[in-house]
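Appendix B. Raw example, untouched.
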Amino acid sequence: MIRSRQVISIMFTTLAKDRVGPELCRAEVVVATDGYGWKSYFFVIAAKTPVSGSSSISIKPWMRARDCLAFVGRIRITTQFYCPKFIKPGEKDTQGLGAGIPAPAITTRALFLGMLLLFAQTSRAAVLPDERGDILYHSYDGGGVTIDGPSLLVRKNVGDSTSVGYNHYIDNVTSASIDVVVSASEYTEKRTENSVSVDYLNQKSIMSLSYTNSVESDFDANTVSLGVSQDMFGDLTNLSLGFSYGDNSIGQNGNSSFSEAAEVRSYRASLSQIFTKDLIVVFAFENITDQGYLNNPYRSVRYCDTPVCTAYSFQSEVYPESRTSNAFAVRANYFLEHRAALHTGVRFFSDNWGINSTTLELGYTVPVEDDWIFELRFRYYDQTSAEFFSDLFSRVDEQNFLARDKEMSAFDSFTLGVGASHELDNSAWQSIKRASLNFNLDYLYFDYHQFRDLTAPGSPGNEPLYSFDAMVIRAFASIWF
């Protein structure tokens, strides 16, 4: 019989770092004055610093729940342990928990043991990005377009509070897409992008600044981004705010007199919340305003030459000079047994051009043994068309704004992807902490609901609708130093 005169229950959740990614550890401490506890699981991670005056009593991994609870108010925790559900005298052990189960191996990022009983406390504030280097090869092939090239990313800390990064990215483009072959000829070009970034850590806040320059033969983009991230409520909640400003210069190959400009402003906010020991949810919102020349100087629309539309001609697209869009997303990571994880998300987008879209994502990550991680992913996307889109206009200059770019059409797409990561044995490398090889393969399919294939036979407006598939490859090596 339990003669409990007072019961104190303290619950906390902490974020731990695992090889697969973030992993949660939730602790529930229930203290009864006579040394017995409720039916509950208990996870406790070793505290790094003792509380002055607390006694030094070790808690072994195989201790029973009541033994853990009997000392929890006056111990210095010196080892990782797990207290199973406690079976009261006379009850059947229907779950086969026995006397105790060892704790899973987890590396702690944050720990709270506080309030009322002088628990030891260790909390982790925000952390800088890892010091690492990545070498990437990427390739896209589909719809008459091939894009490939290398990328280099390096991140290094300067002192304990500053991280600097540099990224060099190259796209080699060969395009004979449906838009090109109808009104122009195949072309090749090279895009080079360079970006630098600085992250500054101040306790539980990280402030970020980055600059990106992207150069093509007919397009020059410069973007500056600012961001701040703050951990709060015991590191269970993270709030991030960001702003980006882009200044774009647009030209046209073969027409030296053509020169246009556009500005892009982006405002971002996200909230990450740890709800349970297994669940992290992120809520994100973004507002983007575009101003200036927003269409592609090479794109054209087609219109009927005759009242009965037996033939058609082309004229340049005309877009509005401003665009405002909003996007809201919810993403969740649910952590399973054996370090596996389920990823899911939904994103809603709308703009003042009449485009509305929905994106659904689902992924599964699982480690195999100690040095392999595999991933499966699926993505579905669906959008409506812009208000001024038409595959075939009835006459020239039919309306103020004209678009036939297939990305302005209603369409849907899906992506199926697989990925594998192998961690290398770096025991012989003194200056390298970790190293991995990574490979990702994605299959994409696009199905357009209004955009027609003009390379196929058919009278104007009755050609078959256009669709295509593509393959994307990403292979990269990473080292941590």
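End of appendix B.
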